[in-house]
Write a structure and sequence with these properties.
CATH architecture: Up-down Bundle
Order of helices and strands: EHEHHEHHHHHHHHHHHHHH
Structural class: mainly alpha
Largest sheet: 3 strands, antiparallel
Shape: globular
Number of strands: 3
Number of domains: 1
Strand content: under 5%
Number of helices: 17
Oligomer: single chain
Distance between the termini: 44 Å
CATH topology: Na+/H+ antiporter like fold
Strand order of the largest sheet: 1-2-3
Length: 362
Amino acid sequence: MSGKAIPLKAGKKRIIGHDGWGPLALALLIGTIGGFVFDWLRMPLAWMLGACVFSTVAAFFGLRIGMRVRLRQGMIIILGVLLGSGFTPDLVQRLGEWAVSLCVLTGMTMTGASLCYVWLRVFTGWDRVTCYFASMPGGLNDMTIMGGALGGDERSIALAHALRILTVVLTIPIWYRLVNGAQTSVLTMVHGPTGNDWKDYAVLIACGIAGAAVGRLLRLPASFMMGPMIASAIVHLGGLTDSQPPGVLVAAAQVVVGTGIGCRFVGTNFDRLHKEMAASIGAAVLLIGCAVGFAMITVALTGLNLDATVLSYAPGGFAEMSLIGLALGIEIAMVATHHLFRLFLIILTGPLVFRTFLRRAP
């Protein structure tokens, strides 16, 4: 391997950033160090965010880092299985309690995405495709993949979503710590024992392999995540297992995915991104404002817990918000259900809405 930087469009099926085993090893080393540092600081979603931040900085400073797409896809399968484990029989019984909240969440998603789309069109030079998929309040990997497939700029979409997640997961825990005195720690969530036996591992592995294969066969959007997630949800709803992937493996998956995000910025000039970064952070603040506003409306209508509702609406994604909810002691079942619902809503309707209303727009 030559270590040559691969253009994103030309190499997107094989490599992100620089080609070669050396750049891959360096990227994983930097990402792992970032995960350890963020974990030491007791940051939420430490392994993904630490890897993302450190590898992004490394890319901006011109270090030769790269990520193999096959490795990233394999780790996305693990995260898909983890997402599916959020579906339990208890959630089905409680869906009726959250019907109004889920309806309001649908309106909030549409409102937040529309505001962010207009914001990004005004304050960035991105095209319609890029702004549309960058404005979605969830699904970093999915929106980046879909947006790139439909002609958008994957780097810009990834930038917007990475900054959205970073803004949300840094803002909400700090807010709860300052206002409510809450203490967040990911140590017990990442390193805690799972209690899985060989049967649990067999079921989880089968969900990952079969789910990815069926997802590819059915051409599901982001099939390496969606297929395993659906398979895992089915077995968990059916009571075949209540297990999750081991914490160490989940941490490794987060490092790979986070490092892959950072590798997207290889060859990018930081000085040319300050406007886009400021606009992306502004879009994230808009989404947080929408989440708080619509959560207050939902609480007035239903009497649900405000903290749980805000976290359920927060635009940080299932994995991020679920981990934060667990750390803060907020009702994890409600948070998981709402974020899974929004993830399905965005993934299944996002491309359809784009093709219907925006693709033919002048």
